Amino acid sequence: MNKRATVQPQGRHFHRWRIAEPNGPVSEGLCRECGATREFRNWLAESDFITNEEHRMTRAA
Length: 61
Ligand SMILES: [Zn+2]
Fold this sequence. Notes:
By secondary structure, this protein is an alpha+beta fold. It has one helix at about 45-60, and strands at about 15-20, 25-30, 35-40.
């Protein structure tokens, strides 16, 4: 539900991302099917953590 639709499926398949070794704040992912590349973040934005905490607290109430 919180997924961000940043990846647009291309063609008739879901990309099968092969993630490279972490090298800085992002890792490069390579699709084994079509060779498409994409950058994946190796960290979560601080605001995301705060948002998750707030959701947890709301549920616990
Ligand atoms: Zn692909």
